[in-house]
Predict the 3D structure of the following.
Amino acid sequence: MPASHDFPSLGLNAELLRAAAQLALDRPTPVQAASIPVILRGSDLISTAQTGSGKTAAYALPLMQRLLEERPPLSTIPRTRRDTRALVLVPTRELAAQVGELLHGIAQHLPARLRCEVVFGGVSINPQMMSLRGGADVVVATPGRLLDLVDHNALQLGDVRQLVLDEADRLLDLGFADELARVLALLPARRQNLFFSATFPAAVEALATRLLVSPVRVEVPDTPDTTPGIVQRALVVDEGRRTELLRHLVLEHGWKQSLVFVASQHAAEHVAWKLYNRGVHAAPFHGGLSQGARRDRLAEFRNGQWDMLVTTDLAARGIDIAGLPVVVNYDLPRSTVDYTHRIGRTGRAGESGLAVSLVTPATEAHFRLIEKRQGRPVARETVAGFEPDAQAVATAAAAQAAAGTGGIKGKRPSRKDKARAEAARQANKP
């Protein structure tokens, strides 16, 4: 990054510079240096940068400055409640809480207080309705709860001037498509749109382009200066011995904090229970837990009360655990995009990290596809005493070859795959 790139050179005013200093934001990261001037001049933006690159601060600082600059003087315009002028949409409760924490941290160092409210599902709606009685300058929300509050007349979106989609690829995907369409219909046509994500698959990018007006693109490539120091390892093991191998790795290497990804809520409970009963201080973390339980479990993990969280992809995005040293793919993710987000929980903010994938004979072809799409081969290793059964390896290879699928998803596209393809086709129509 050029030496001339510091926060004053990006156009932030004195109040925001002081707030950044109080939050120990000393020098802008590449995505912050590229995005902040674009946001301050009011352009639409698509910003793509790796996980842990400082994307939240890249929009939070200029967003708060624009809110200050455009805030109507209370002495000249009588108001009984604040109009919501900025909306930040996120896919998960955990990310909503983290974004809200940063915005509150910035706001408390500003001379004129801006009111920020964070709303998400999984908890009672009544306290959130009460908090919104006086309005809010900026609202951070998950789409479903936002729509619930609108339906209860607790929130109006007709004055929103800035819309941020954080983890935009997931919000524009089919899981949130209907809710997002409803939210967009409630917003004014003239607004600034800011889309941030670590990845933008082609189908999602086509939909995003339709929603933005002459967007500026910010793409921070992986370079020796920006690529996280993540060491990737692929350990080949029979499926039935993965838990035993994981316990062996924890004890042998003395891992005191690790995040283990599995495919389902049931697997999270089952694997955590087996490890806990064999001397590993592990706990499950997934969407089936109440919001209070999820908040407490995450706080306990950050404080060192648990050595391991066994989690679904709920923890793959937006959750920032400072200094997390190890991520394990107990079950391989469905896609390379999910793989990128999972391993991006470690090696953040310039620190080093380790990402271990447990590759079984049946999932070998799938991991090869992940390697191909991330453009980085990962050497296969075995651990003494946990070598895979040679007959199982041969049988799996033969089955994959006979199926002609390479072990990936299956020959026929899923309903979700078909819907994505149709969405992309519609987006590319003249």
About this structure: The two ends are 39 Å apart (CA to CA). The longest helix spans residues 55-70. The CA atoms of residues 52 and 93 lie 18 Å apart. The mean pLDDT is 84.
